[in-house]
């Protein structure tokens, strides 16, 4: 796996720590398909895209796709960097609600949940995407800030682990 080029990633505003980016990159390196729910400006997206295997498939889902701009960075500027550096990837980007996307998109080796963070929405995401992937994981397992994420994961995933920062994964 190539190491992360932090000057590229750190240009992108977002909520993913370097340790969490490292974990995403490592998991991406063996994923044939990766579906990300909630991309914001694409910080986590870039980490994943740069590490997917050759010819991998990246699906990017965000209800606010095209409307978020921070410090001159948008998901589209990140997308342009991805297609320049990884022209081999298949990429699907959709401005659509996560649960609706689950009913329209194909199964995915990995699904990373970082969209809506309230209990009902995270529960809906886990129910919708859980049967459609091998590795289900997500961000913000963080009781003080996101109690709804923690409650939904604990209730719906009997065997989970917090694996890097606030990233959780379903263990098989
Ligand atoms: C915490 S941000 C994602 C951060 C990003 N992964 C990063 O590395 O910076 C959450 C994103 O989820 C999107 N979102 C919120 N609810 C959603 C839903 N129901 N379906 C799809 N995307 C959603 C928001 O528009 C926002 O861009």
| Shape estimate | globular
- What percent of residues adopt helix (DSSP H or I)? 25-40%
Measured between the Cα atoms of the first and last residue, the distance is: 24 Å
Hetero groups in this structure are:
S-adenosylmethionine
Overall description:
With 172 residues, this protein is α/β, with parallel strands linked by helices. The protein has one domain: Rossmann fold (3-Layer(aba) Sandwich). Helix content is 37%, strand content 23%. The protein contains seven helices and nine strands. It has helices spanning 6-9, 18-28, 43-51, 75-85, 98-104, 119-129, 147-156; strands spanning 33-37, 57-61, 69-70, 73-74, 90-94, 108-113, 133-138, 160-164, 167-170. It has a seven-stranded mixed β-sheet, with helices on both faces. A hairpin with a 2-residue loop joins strand 3 and strand 4. Helix 2 (18-28) packs parallel to helix 3 and helix 5 runs parallel beside helix 6. The protein is globular and about 40 Å long. The protein starts with 5 loop residues before the first helix and ends with a strand. The structure holds S-adenosylmethionine. S-adenosylmethionine is lined by residues 14-16, 37-40, 43-44, 61-64, 68, 97-98, 114-116, 121. Keywords: Methyltransferase, Transferase. This is Methyltransferase domain-containing protein. InterPro entries: SAM-dependent_MTases_sf (IPR029063).
């Amino acid at each position: 796996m190539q190491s992360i080029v932090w000057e590229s990633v750190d240009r992108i505003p977002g909520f993913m720590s370097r340790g969490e980016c490292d974990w995403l990159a490592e998991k991406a390196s063996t994923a044939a398909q990766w579906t990300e729910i909630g991309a914001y400006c694409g910080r986590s997206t870039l980490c994943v895209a740069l590490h997917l295997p050759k010819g991998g498939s990246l699906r990017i889902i965000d209800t606010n796709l095209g409307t978020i701009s921070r410090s001159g960075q948008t998901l589209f500027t990140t997308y342009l960097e991805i297609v320049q550096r990884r022209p081999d990837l298949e990429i699907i980007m959709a401005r659509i609600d996560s649960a609706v996307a689950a009913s329209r998109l194909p199964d995915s080796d990995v699904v990373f949940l970082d969209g809506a963070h309230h209990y009902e929405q995270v529960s809906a995401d886990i129910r919708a995407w859980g049967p459609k992937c091998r590795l289900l994981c997500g961000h913000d397992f963080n009781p003080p800030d996101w109690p709804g994420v923690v409650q939904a994961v604990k209730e719906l995933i009997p065997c989970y682990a917090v694996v890097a920062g606030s990233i959780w994964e379903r263990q098989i």
